[in-house]
Amino acid sequence: MSYKDEMYCTKSHEYVVKEDGKYVIGLTDYAIEQLGDIVFLELPSVGDEFEKGETFANIESVKAASEIYMPISGKIVEINEELPDAPEKLNEDCYEGGWLVKIESDAQESEFDDLLTYDDYKSELE
Amino acid sequence: MVKQTYLHDKHVVLGAKMVDFALWHMPVQYTSIIEEHKTVRENVGVFDVSHMGEVFISGKDATEFLNKVVPQSIDRLPYEKAVYCQLTKENGGLIDDLIIYKTGIESYLIICNASRVDEDINWLSLNAKGLDVKIDNQSHNYSLLAIQGPKAIDLMRKMGYDIQEQKSFTIKSATIEGLKLLVSRTGYTGEDGFEILVENDLSEFLWDKILEKGQEFGIKPIGLGARDTLRLEAGLHLYGNDLNETTTPIEAGLSWSIPKDKTQNYNGKDVILNQIQNGVEKKLIGFEMLDRNIPRHEYEIYFKGEKVGEVTSGGVAPTAGKNIGMGYVKNLPEICTDSIIQVMIREKLHDAKVVKRPFVQKRNRV
């Protein structure tokens, strides 16, 4: 199974997918495609805690700077360490190799109410 | 209303991302800004810059008129030569920056910024009172294609370009693909290259020929995104960012373009000469970041804990391999080449080093 089958997306283009009891968070391929050449990525530190909707990372393409928001609340337990030194890798793979952070979360189910399956997310874009 | 160039549909078919720029619907990138940037530095690229303004100036007093509206010495401009100019106001601020080409006796072509065509025409008309001069805005009738990069000359020859020798900053009537066209050896990328003025109806034919004949030279269509990274790396100003009605050519670091011995009067001459002699309050500097952070338009610049200015242009420099910027700072003698300044990025100060412009060297080939 790939991330795309199981993940949930926000309208601000983050995805979240459950894996081994943690949640993996990243940006959708549509977001990366819209941004273009990625040249900068700033990730939080392990141990940082964020509420749903809070800015937890910053990304920049040649064109513009954007913030990345938490799809659900939680505590950072792992970051994709190699990405900030090679953010251009996101242009090739923003899922299995290009996830951003992993979190532990005891988010209430209600936090998932406004998240969309990848199929629904894609059709909302059209 | 947003305007389209005659090549709009070509861009869409090529898969370009289109954006609104200066009231024109323009391609910002076709594949990747970084890839397009490198294509121009290493091979050759073609740009549709038909949004730019073309204004023809003629009449018995044309030279006298132009001499009055720019600090440059238009009376000394030889036939077929071009000169980089600024339209100055009385306070030394700029209505626009532009290139003036001498195309005949008392006959000139002005190429100006798309965003400023209307202001330029108003300003020129205002200054033409009492003079025998015709200001003919032909922007809607012409397309402008730029062929830029070290292989631009090879592509031009391949297309039948029949001029033996054309120096940088000249304009000549040349035959290309059987068409008689005005060709200038100018550009906005820091590379060798040509800009071709073509009537709208022939622009699609020429665009297709350029892409077809350019294949063997590795040509790519280049969007406005790479146009911006290329010009920034070359240290070239962008009107609206680095130049406006409150910046003088001296503050902008354009003193090299101002003749000190021009006898005729022109708008803002007193202010400009005074600044040359007595110095300026603010000055435009170039800088490179010392970490991975990217400076952008309107970010604040600090020096020794004090806010001294703002970034006017900034971004990645794909060829220099750095993140670079330009901005106006308070004219302190301590802020000079190799000084360390700071840029406020996401509420933190990041070190940058003041460097000379251009950020990459131009490699011209004749």
What does this protein look like?
- The complex is a heterodimer of chains A (126) and B (366).
- By secondary structure, chain A is α+β, with helices and mostly antiparallel strands.
- In chain A, 15% of the residues lie in helices and 36% in strands.
- In chain A, the strands form two sheets. In chain A, strands 5-8-9-3-2-1-10 form a seven-stranded antiparallel β-sheet. In chain A, strands 4-6-7 form a three-stranded antiparallel β-sheet, with no helix packed on it.
- Chain A starts with a helix and ends with a helix.
- Chain B has 366 residues and is of the alpha+beta class.
- Chain B folds into three domains: 8-52 and 140-233, Gyrase A, domain 2; 54-133, Alpha-Beta Plaits; 281-355, Aminomethyltransferase beta-barrel domains (Elongation Factor Tu (Ef-tu), domain 3).
- Helix content of chain B is 21%, strand content 34%.
- Chain B contains eight helices and 19 strands.
- Chain B starts with 7 loop residues before the first helix and ends in an 11-residue tail after the last strand.
- The mean pLDDT of chain B is 97.
- Classes of the chains: A alpha+beta (126), B alpha+beta (366).
- Chain A binds chain B through residues 36-37, 39-40, 42, 58, 60, 62-63, 65, 84, 91, and chain B through 17, 28-29, 32-35, 225, 229, 292-294, 296, 315-316, 346.
